[in-house]
Amino acid sequence: MDLQSLRTRIEDIDKRILEALAERREVALAVARSKAEKAGAVRDTEREASLLLRLMKLGNELGLDASYLTRLYQIIIEDSVLTQQAWMQQGDGTGSLSIAHLGTAGSYSHLAAQGYAHRRQCNLQGISCETFNDVLKSVEDGNTTLGILPIENSTSGSINEVYDLLRHTHLHIVAETYLSVEHQLLVAKGDEDKDIHTIYGHPQAIAQCSRYLSHLDNVTVLSCPSSAHAMELVASSSEPGIAALGSQSGAALFNLVAVAQNLADQPGNQTRFILIQRESCHVPQQVPARTSLIMATHNQPGALADALIILRQHELNLIKLESRPMPGNPWEELFYVDLAVHEQSPKWQDALRELKAMTRFIKVLGSYADERVKATRVIAPEQSSGA
């Protein structure tokens, strides 16, 4: 067969793979409905491991590498778990979701909102905002149902501006979602060989690529309100030698090309986003949950330790503890806490009563589905009761 015929054959195979993946997701949704009726847990990690082991054996017979299949099916299984969790919370898709996000189409917040809506079988009705505060205001005023905010990044850490805004809003955190962020250096087509003198990017993108940027000589790095703003600025300018930090999807949207890729200081760069709305949400018991709160302890030695001891006594898993200055009270701190627990859990309710009695201030921001999915690991046959 000639080269074009071989390429056509690959395209046909890829189409069948996509159709099979879509069919698999539909079956995963049917499984979610069955589990909801029987109050079954979303995950059966033992069965997942046995499934992966069988696939590796079958793949070996077909000449496929075991590590390749493991990476592939870990992604597929993660998609099934998150799809089932989303259905158990929301049910069948409502058609569209209105979500306020930072930046225009192509920004990382827009991409995260798009992924969140698609996982729920909904179309995204995105509303672009200039600032994080505008995102909150859009939801508070009823212009959108949801708002999405980046809250922490695996490279640059917590996004303090968002933490500070959460203290002053009556909105509830109702979901989280994660986005793999692969920063690229983007220029206008035809400008690939020009010497770059100015790079535009969102402050978080700049922070996450600090090591790469620090090694560039005679280059000015300027902040923009969002990654989409940076890409739009480069796309609309006729000035040679300017570039933007952005995503592959954004490059396609703004007709830009990448001259450098994978720029984040750490591999596997991810941003965690939270979704907020006016009403709180209910998380089914079979779905792992995360509860977020703010608290201020009394200004005395051991006050924070006493609060943490309460969590330990009630066997509550502390996921995150973040401190922020308390406005108007120099040298005093507010603490943002994430726990792996349902808000209605008796253990949490008992702990909350004790915390209210010994803290100056406490506010539950929301309880929502935990979207951290641990990768499926193969269990040796002699260790697996399902083998």
Automatic annotation (TrEMBL):
One of its GO terms (molecular function) is chorismate mutase activity. One of its GO terms (biological process) is L-phenylalanine biosynthetic process. Residues 98-278 form the Prephenate dehydratase domain. It catalyses: chorismate = prephenate; prephenate + H(+) = 3-phenylpyruvate + CO2 + H2O. Keywords: Amino-acid biosynthesis, Aromatic amino acid biosynthesis, Cytoplasm, Isomerase, Lyase, Multifunctional enzyme, Phenylalanine biosynthesis. Residues 292-369 form the ACT domain. Substrate binds at R7, R24, K35, D44, E48, S80, Q84. Residues 1-88 form the Chorismate mutase domain. It holds the Pfam family PDT. Pathway: Amino-acid biosynthesis; L-phenylalanine biosynthesis; phenylpyruvate from prephenate: step 1/1; Metabolic intermediate biosynthesis; prephenate biosynthesis; prephenate from chorismate: step 1/1. It comes from the Bacteria. Its EC number is 4.2.1.51, 5.4.99.5. It is found in: Cytoplasm. Catalyzes the Claisen rearrangement of chorismate to prephenate and the decarboxylation/dehydration of prephenate to phenylpyruvate. This is Bifunctional chorismate mutase/prephenate dehydratase.
